Amino acid sequence: MKGWVVFMLQAQGMRLDVVPVTIARQNCSIFWEETTRTAVVIDPGGEVPHILEKIRQNDLKVEMILLTHGHFDHVGGAHDLREILSQKQREVVPVIGPAQADDFLLQGVEEQVKLFGAPDQNLKNVKVDRYLSGGEILEGAGRVFKVIIVTGHTPGHVAFFDEANKTLLAGDTLFAGTIGRTDFPYGNHDLLVREIKTKIFPLGDDIIVLPGHGRPTKIGIEKQSNPFLT
Ligand SMILES: [Zn+2]
């Protein structure tokens, strides 16, 4: 996600930083609340020193680390980030999500890194503190995130919906002009299309989608023009 987009969202009152991580340039999002300086980190796939620097710059206390799914570019930094933050903040910072069906990916991060030829950034397997099953309400950084299961890209993929701020953290489900890859042995194109249409589209046309890669979009725009969904 380019700097100007983040600036635009910030200008709308959203306290958000996006750190592109790993060779896949995955959007690691950091949301925070101005008054309390509490924060939530979503999909820290790598570049842990860079993420920590943003947290330090803004003087933030991280309340939780959320994961959308088990691919290395989304979760590879979660183990180290939890260790370092928990030590610094003197309490465990929980890693929450995705659904348990992605456990084989969470425990296979080091294998995925070899497979994708990603240069060693010390990305690690991660044991999460809590799996999600859809419908949970998570509170952090003054925000409320509703958990929505959206499978097809991976079997345990979740999205986080912040209704009050009209924002969906979509991971690798819906992108601007495209949808998530499904060419993995566990991927399912038809299922992903169906999941997007039945679980994401009904959230509302004016919802801002922050995807795992590339620029933000809105649900209404994708409903109208996304070639995979029209
Ligand atoms: Zn993915």
UniProtKB/TrEMBL annotation:
<keyword id="KW-0479">Metal-binding</keyword>
<feature type="domain" description="Metallo-beta-lactamase">
    <location>
        <begin position="25"/>
        <end position="213"/>
    </location>
</feature>
<keyword id="KW-0862">Zinc</keyword>
<dbReference type="InterPro" id="IPR036866">
    <property type="entry name" value="RibonucZ/Hydroxyglut_hydro"/>
</dbReference>
<dbReference type="Pfam" id="PF00753">
    <property type="entry name" value="Lactamase_B"/>
</dbReference>
<keyword id="KW-0378">Hydrolase</keyword>
<dbReference type="InterPro" id="IPR051453">
    <property type="entry name" value="MBL_Glyoxalase_II"/>
</dbReference>
<dbReference type="GO" id="GO:0004416">
    <property type="term" value="F:hydroxyacylglutathione hydrolase activity"/>
</dbReference>
<protein>
    <submittedName>
        <fullName>Hydroxyacylglutathione hydrolase GloC</fullName>
        <ecNumber>3.1.2.6</ecNumber>
    </submittedName>
</protein>
<dbReference type="GO" id="GO:0046872">
    <property type="term" value="F:metal ion binding"/>
</dbReference>
<dbReference type="InterPro" id="IPR001279">
    <property type="entry name" value="Metallo-B-lactamas"/>
</dbReference>
